[in-house]
Design goal:
The radius of gyration is 28 Å and the shape is elongated. The longest helix is centred in the last third of the chain and has 24 residues. With about 130 residues, it is mainly alpha-helical. The protein is built from six helices and no strands. The chain starts with a helix and ends with a helix.
Length: about 130
């Protein structure tokens, strides 16, 4: 049994052995919890009916290619976002030195907005198609 399962078991045992306060009566909910404690703690019920997280199929090499391609895209995108200050400093000292920094800041801020704004449209389209 792994550490997480053993901690759950110990928490359940602690709850089961905890004395009830004398000023209240045990409820039906407590009786249900105590009845559940008798079950095997490793065989947990899914949180959502009909959903078993261990039954996901393995996508194989094609799925891992998708994951690696997404990583490469995000690596480049977020790397560029982290360098926005460097680009703005370059623009201020070279091509756009006649403009104020707040005016130049519109360039990267709009670029980032348009880079992420398409995500909602693409995800809605993808949900409807598939």
């Amino acid at each position: 049994m792994d550490n997480q399962a053993s901690s759950v078991v110990s928490e359940k045992k602690e709850f089961a052995t905890r004395p009830a306060s004398p000023d209240r009566k045990s409820s039906a909910a407590e009786a249900n919890v105590l009845a559940d404690l008798e079950d095997d703690p490793v065989k947990s019920k899914p949180a959502i009916a009909g959903f078993d997280p261990t039954s996901f199929p393995d996508g194989g090499p094609q799925a891992w290619l998708v994951v690696s391609g997404a990583f490469c895209c995000l690596f480049c995108s977020f790397g560029w976002i982290n360098c926005i200050g460097v680009f703005q400093a370059y623009y201020q000292t070279h091509q756009l030195r006649a403009y104020s920094p707040s005016t130049i800041a519109w360039i990267p801020s709009l670029t980032v907005f348009f880079m992420f704004a398409g995500v909602s449209l693409v995800s809605l389209t993808e949900d409807q198609v598939n």
